[in-house]
Design brief:
heterodimer, A: 267 residues, alpha/beta, Rossmann fold, seven-stranded mixed β-sheet, 11 helices, 16% strand, globular, B: 397 residues, alpha+beta, Beta-Lactamase, Heat Shock Protein 90, 3 domains, five-stranded mixed β-sheet, 12 strands, 47% helix, elongated
Chain lengths: 267, 397
């Protein structure tokens, strides 16, 4: 139960099968707002915040522990264990896709399948591998995050006030929309963008769906095909859209791709 | 009172009607652009083009807004800005660097709103950009200052750690020193006692032919006596360090001083000295009795030992109260005095001696100071070379 509280886990929907949504870098579980409700009719929908993000227990973010994504994978397994409802369907965006892969490699019995949205095992170009970024790009990007130190904390509040279609949720909940403690954001960015988990792919036996966006500034199409080649029992689907967040920019196409995959999943 | 005349309205300034909306857009004091949901630029104002150094045709329908950002800004845009825009319909006060055509960068603050079509689908993003070159410099200063403060905090913590470690080491060394002194005093006592016994026996049985032998025997005995005194002092120091603070009791000063003075009677008579005692103002103090005895014995015997040659010692012992009511014991002599300018800092150190011509062990004042501190008091000294020294023991109230 402690794990559920620590990661601000919310459960909705009906059905036997659990579907767990885990958000990517830069936001929190509210990123799933346009996608997750579509699954509530058929599944029990579980949303969580990574430790350090959104409504999670920020005091639990110990930089030493979270120096690698394995700590987040352990967190995920703790949540799944606490839910105690058999193998789950896992939907992970961006860095959470990697977290799901690590968790499934460690405890395959807990996962029925993985849906990987905009996944990348490594953002850096390495030899023949095209990650999309050079080492200097990553350093510059971390520098830019550093220089957004003031920006990050400074631009949160006014963003939230107006244009809220759900005024009953205004205030406390939305004041911190996608806001992160800058120190945590900086650290998490480093861990996320410097990670290289290509070697872990061979350990994953869980069936997976790779959802690759055709024009994703963060993840070149080569990364999707690389993953497809190295992940056993994987399927690759190309979404003809743009950006790193298809669940926001193309929610319907994203929902359809996931549904399509789940329908044909052997039970 | 007559009614105030209606002020004449100035005729409408025709320049006010001259503002052309297109000019307003193009030459606004801020950058404007609009783009499709995927970022493709559809409209850019002249101000922004001038800032960036691009022609309109190079950008419109050809480039995406996010391509104008640095790599770092682009990541922020994709992971944060887009989420905000699509979920909240707007984004405010986001700080980015734009890349100019010439490779330089321009710090800007960005506001954006998302316009949706009648079906609620994202249609166009309107972006306003403000040049914040100066503000950015100031922010960088703040960031630097913050980083510096953090660094200093870390340095402080490190220095603190080091201090703690050094403290622990000092405590350990102190303990080692204590046990060394204990071992030395303990291990020396036995052979010295043996030596004294053997020498007494030797003196009794042996016959010396050399006429100077008697003087040498005397010198030997004197030296032996000094060693014994030093060892006794060391033993006392060790005992002091090993024992916990002694139980305080109400000690009557007059009888205690009498006891101390009686013990010093032989020297006193030999030197024709006097002790003048006045403890009427504070007849008793609350303190460990043996500690107080030791303090007074050491101070009083010092007063005799370091008397000015050719001047009979006159030692005044007083007990008063300080302004706050704390008892103060004063021992004032007319002895040779101590050069405090030179020796003040070392006065209470173990084995420090300032009158090598007088035999002593260098333990007395060290012991007094330790005892006073152990009793929660404070020891002060003032002195004039050739005139005398005054010790003040201020005890807790």
């Amino acid at each position: 139960m402690e794990a559920l509280k620590r990661q601000n886990v919310t459960v909705s929907g009906s059905g036997e099968q659990l579907i767990v949504f885990s958000h990517g870098f830069g936001c929190d579980q509210r990123m799933w707002r346009l996608v997750a409700p579509a699954f509530e009719a058929d599944y029990r929908v579980v949303l969580l915040d990574l430790v350090g993000a959104g409504g999670s227990d920020l005091s639990a973010y110990d930089p030493a522990r979270y120096a690698t994504l394995h700590a987040h994978a352990e967190d995920l397994l703790a949540v799944v264990a606490a839910l105690a409802a058999g193998p789950v369907i896992f939907v992970g965006h961006s860095v959470s896709a990697t977290i799901g892969l690590l968790a499934a490699a460690a405890a395959p019995e807990q996962f029925r399948c993985l849906v990987l949205l905009g996944p990348s095992p490594c953002y850096l170009n390495q030899g023949h591998y095209v990650g999309g970024f050079g080492a200097r790009d990553i350093e510059e990007l971390l520098g830019a995050l550093d220089s957004n130190y003031l920006g990050w904390s400074g631009n949160m509040a006014p963003v939230i006030m107006a244009h809220d279609e759900r005024p009953e949720l205004a205030g406390e909940l939305f004041r911190s929309f996608c806001a992160t403690d800058p120190r945590i954001a900086r650290h998490f960015a480093r861990v996320t963008f410097l990670a290289d988990h290509r070697a872990d792919l061979a350990r994953v036996r869980t069936p997976s769906l790779i959802v690759q966006v055709a024009h994703d500034a963060l993840v070149p199409v080569q990364v999707g095909t690389y993953l497809h080649r190295h992940l056993a029992a994987s399927q690759l689907v190309l979404l003809d859209t743009f950006g790193h967040c298809p669940h926001l920019s193309a929610p319907r196409a994203t929902i359809d791709a996931i549904r399509q995959y789940l329908v044909h999943l052997p039970s | 009172m007559s009614p105030q005349p209606e002020p004449l309205r100035p005729p409408l300034d025709l320049r006010l009607t001259q503002e052309n909306l297109e000019d307003l857009y193009d030459d606004a004091p801020c950058g404007y652009c609009s783009c499709l949901p995927d970022g493709t630029l559809v409209k850019v104002n002249r101000t922004l083009l001038t800032w960036l150094g691009y022609e309109r045709t190079e950008l419109v329908a050809r480039r995406c807004f996010q391509e104008l950002l640095t790599v770092g800004g682009r990541l922020h845009y994709e992971t944060y800005f887009v989420s905000l825009l699509l979920l909240r319909g707007q984004a405010r006060e986001i700080s980015y660097q734009l890349c100019r055509a010439n490779g330089a960068s321009l710090p800007v603050l960005l506001n954006a709103t998302l316009v949706r079509d009648t079906d609620g689908e994202p249609l166009v993003v309107r972006i306003t950009l403000f040049d914040i070159t100066e503000r950015r410099k100031y922010e960088q200063e703040l960031l630097r200052a913050r980083a510096q403060a953090e660094q200093q905090g870390e340095d402080l913590a490190r220095a603190n750690d080091q201090l703690t470690r050094q403290n622990e080491e000092l405590t350990r060394i102190n303990a080692d020193l204590d046990s060394f002194v204990y071992t030395a005093s303990h291990d020396l006592r036995q052979p010295i006692n043996n030596m004294a016994g053997i020498f007494a026996e030797l003196k009794r049985t042996a016959t010396f032919h050399d006429p100077e032998a008697e003087g040498m025997v005397g010198m030997f005995e004197e030296a032996l006596g000094q060693i014994m005194t030093t060892i006794t002092g060391l033993t006392e120091v060790v005992q002091l360090q090993r024992q916990l603070a002694p139980e305080a009791e109400e000690v009557l000063l007059a009888p205690l001083l009498e006891e101390v003075i009686n013990a010093l009677r032989p020297q006193l008579q030999e030197m024709a000295g006097t002790f003048l005692v006045d403890v009427a103002a504070v007849p008793s103090v609350r303190i460990g009795r043996s500690g107080l005895h030791s303090m007074l014995y050491n101070l009083l015997s010092n007063a005799l030992k370091y008397a000015q040659i050719g001047r009979p010692p006159e030692v005044r012992v007083r007990a008063d109260r300080a302004e706050d009511g704390a008892p103060v014991l004063t021992v004032q002599d007319n002895g040779r005095g101590i050069d405090l300018e030179r020796h003040g800092r070392e006065l209470f150190q173990l084995f420090r001696r300032f009158h090598p011509e007088v035999p002593g062990s260098g333990l007395g004042l060290y012991l007094v100071n330790r005892l006073v501190h152990q009793a929660g008091g404070q020891l002060d000294v003032s002195s004039v070379v050739g005139e005398g020294t005054t010790f003040r023991i201020r005890l807790p109230r």
